[in-house]
Amino acid sequence: TEFLWVPVWRPFLDFFTFGFLFEPDDISNPARALPLLLAIGLVAAVVVSLLAARRASFGDRATGTGTEVSRMAPLVLVAAGVSFVVFGLAFIAYRRQVAMALTASAPLLVVAVLFAAGLVWPAIAKGQHALDRRRRMSDSLGVVLLLGLVPMALLTVVHVIKPLLTSRGAIVYAPFLLMAIAQGVVAIGSRRVVALVVGLALFGVHAASVGFYRTIPGPNDYRSIARDIDLEFGGEDLIFVPPRNWVTTPLFYDLRAPHARLVTSDFAQAIAAHPGARVWMPLFSDQEPSDSMKAALAGFRVEKELTAAGGRTLLYVR
After folding, report:
1. Cβ neighbour number for residue 285 with a 10 Å cutoff
2. Residue 15 in contact with residue 154, Cβ under 8 Å?
3. pLDDT by residue (tens digit) across 146-180?
4. CB 16 within 8 A of CB 44
5. For residue 93, is pLDDT > 80?
6. DSSP letters along 200-223, please?
7. What is the DSSP letter of 32?
8. CA 89, 93, 99, 100 torsion: positive or negative?
9. Are 165 and 96 in contact (CB under 8 A)?
10. Taking the alpha carbons of 128, 133, 135, 140 in that order, is the dihedral positive or negative?
11. How many CB atoms lie within 10 A of CB 299?
């Protein structure tokens, strides 16, 4: 449900701002969006770079330096595999257990794919050769764009049906876009003056992105919560950690309390083993104590509540 509010078009648009180099800041208060003119400028720069890369790659093909179709066969298969992975993500989103069970048949599937590829590859190569005569693009650039753009387009379509697209999950495709952009930048900067201007522009965009992201606060202030616990932590104290919840994990990077005092299960048994202990309970992102925690702390009361951005810590005593 956390992805439902994200417009379907936004991740794909963010992808074209130099591979998620800029994204809307939804954490700050108030939230900050990328200025529309800057977003349009970044997308336009990407499109111009891709057009320049296409033109340069066609020049390579015309002079006979393009890559042979047969040498691109493994990369084309990789591109097809990426597309299958994207469809697999959509399948897992709906029927996780069935999809996981099917992984047992992976070795047989690999053998079947290789056997089928040997039968149909001559026909595919023939069709590819026919396309090469019409396409004004080198094989290498074509495959790079295929690996970068096709999965993003497929993920966007899947996102309409089942929201699952985030920048973290799609960042793996950004390097392919950047490689294509780099080819265009090299082509545009064939002259020294132009190369200097383009280089300074790219450096400016990079510096602006660093400055933009440094001003975004973390969603949860784990460091303050850890410091508060460490300052008042006693030798017999316990820390109850909500089980199987990833949002608590970053706390452990800053927490100095002994690991032996962290309790993630059997909360009642931990209380019985340490009858004189106080109990700290860090909670983040609107977490609430689980039923098993509440049952274990039935004879306790909340003596103190320490708060920080996005989190709080409850101190229970008898």
Report:
1. 11
2. no
3. 777 878 887 777 777 766 666 777 777 888 888 88
4. no
5. no
6. HHHHHHHHHHHHHHHTSPPSS-HH
7. B
8. positive
9. no
10. positive
11. 8
Which of the given ranges, 25-39, 113-127, 153-167, 266-280, has the highest pLDDT on average? 266-280
The partner residues of 239 in beta bridges, in order of sequence, read: 262, 280
Residue 65, pLDDT above cutoff 50: no
132, 150, 148: which is closest to 57 by C-alpha?
A: 132
Residue given tokens 């690991």 in the structure block: 259
CA distances for 164 relative to 54, 159, 167, angstroms? 32, 6, 10
Please report the DSSP string for 142-182 in residue order. Answer: HHHHHHHHHHHHHHHHHHHHS----HHHHGGGHHHHHHHHH
Buried b (16+ CB within 10 A) or exposed e, 59-81: ebbeeeebbebeebbebbeebee
CA neighbor of 150 nearest in space, from 64, 41, 76, 243? 76
Q: How far apart are CA 234 and CA 154, in angstroms?
A: 54
For 276-318, what is each residue's pLDDT tens digit? 889 999 998 888 888 899 999 998 999 999 888 888 999 999 8
